[in-house]
Amino acid sequence: MIYPPQHVKQILRTLQSREHQAFLVGGCVRDMLLDIVPQDWDICTSALPSQIMELFPGSRPTGIQHGTVTVVVNNHEVEVTTFRKEDQYQDHRHPDNVSFVSDLTTDLSRRDFTINAMAVSSEGDLVDPFYGMDDLNRRVIRCVGDPDIRFNEDALRMYRALRFSARYDFSIDEITKISIRKNAPSAQYLAAERIRDELQKILQSDHTDRMNEIAWMHLLDRFCTPVRPVPDFTDLSKLKKHAHIRWAGFCHVLKHAGWIQSASQLLHALRMDNRTIKICSTCSLLLDTNPPEDRIGWKKALSKYGTDSVECAAMIADWLNGTKYQKEVSSILRSGECFSLKYLAIDGKDLMEHGYSGPVLGEMLQFLLDYVIEHPENNKRELLIQLAGDHEET
Questions:
Q1: Which one of 10, 154, 239, 391 is at 20 to 30 Å from 206 when CA atoms are compared?
Q2: Which residues fall within 8 angstroms of residue 253, CB to CB, at 6 or more apart?
Q3: How many CA atoms lie within 13 A of 17 on its CB side?
Q4: pLDDT tens-digit profile of 332-345?
Q5: 57 cis-preceded (ω within 30 degrees of 0)
Q6: Angle (deg, nearest 10), helices 295-305 and 274-287
Q7: With contact defined as beta carbons under 8 Å apart, do 340 and 303 qualify?
């Protein structure tokens, strides 16, 4: 088991020295028990927010309405939250009312899954009222209490269940799985960005087959037109874990299964960033056409569509068909051969000095680029200036 760093222990002991209960809680406990170094350390306490801020000068009320204070100790930030219970979730995401309590078990009972509903004291004692440790050992994702209640409180938990399943290679408890499929329609109340972030974490994991369950459970219905059979995303894990590559592969599988009309349509609906939309859309276009037949063709594709899109398309084509296009593209990129105006040995200023202007200038730059793509050894300033002059005279 991994133990918390000194600044975390200091916060726990300071709270306890004033007769407040204080525990590590949630994800950091889960990860410690799995021998994974936690990315964040969260503390829950019986102390009220005002008492926390009094004990730790310089702390910030980052979620005061929910009892959360960000405590700063030795330049380290730790979220400290008062024990609480939550009532009613009319928007399927945020509680209508939060009230502070003095009981740790009540606080743990509001959490999503048993593996996230454990706490550890500063002495290392485990508090596990919902048998999360048993579920860790069984490698199972199971809701705390009634899964229908948990998912109606916060619909994002349905996606989180699959995300934890993918991250740790855990199965999902059968009752929890049935409840997800039953409550999938409530996903319509979630912000698309929140769903996108959960899907991306699954796509960038080693277990992209969990996207099969996402589709089967109707958690993509808001963005797709489901038809049978359910697409198989298992082999996406063979692609590099770069976000845009996994998204491009995901969109390709969905499109060819008839679930979406275009990558652009899906990614816009998920509020994806413009760069990823452009790469995935262009990649889809390239995959739906005949690939270049030779090195010159790949350089022209790089010139027209950009490095990211062409590399992405080459990788996915290799993944789908066993080709070796990525090897050719990588060879071009390593060679330093010119395929864009950026690397051309002559620029617009040079041509202006030789009388070119307006549209004719742009046409000449493109002519010279096309020439150099076919004759990379001739990407030399003097030669290109001479060629431009000869062309003008002609």
A1: 154
A2: 231, 232, 233, 236
A3: 9
A4: 999 989 999 999 99
A5: no
A6: 150
A7: yes
